[in-house]
């Protein structure tokens, strides 16, 4: 779902690959398909699609994701 766009290069979403355990919850809860699983880790594949809702952060069991809602 890459049709919805926000201002480019302003999203605050980051992922700590060292902490990611590959549970894939972020890929399930993200409403815009920002994440994909690659090599058993979540990766951000569409940063500009992030609306900073925080669903991924709130569902990550190991706190591997961070976003500041409303900044980007």
Automatic annotation (TrEMBL):
UniProt keyword terms in alphabetical order: 4Fe-4S, Iron, Iron-sulfur, Metal-binding
UniProt keyword annotation of Nucleotide-binding present: no
Keyword Magnesium among record annotations: no
Cross-referenced Pfam families: Fer4_7
Domain 4Fe-4S ferredoxin-type: 11-40, 41-70
GO molecular function terms attached to this record: 4 iron, 4 sulfur cluster binding; metal ion binding
NCBIfam families: HgcB_ferredoxin (NF040864)
PANTHER family the record matches: ADENYLYLSULFATE REDUCTASE, BETA SUBUNIT (PTHR43687), FERREDOXIN III (PTHR43687:SF1)
Name the record gives this protein: Ferredoxin-2 (Modular protein)
Organism of this sequence: Desulfamplus magnetovallimortis
Lineage, highest ranks first: Bacteria, Pseudomonadati, Thermodesulfobacteriota, Desulfobacteria, Desulfobacterales
């Amino acid at each position: 779902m890459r049709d919805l766009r926000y201002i480019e290069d302003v999203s605050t979403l980051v992922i700590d690959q060292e902490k990611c355990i590959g549970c894939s919850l972020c890929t399930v809860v993200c409403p815009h398909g920002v994440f994909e699983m690659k090599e058993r880790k979540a990766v951000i594949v569409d940063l500009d699609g992030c609306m900073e809702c925080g669903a991924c952060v709130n569902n990550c069991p190991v706190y591997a994701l961070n976003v500041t809602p409303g900044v980007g």
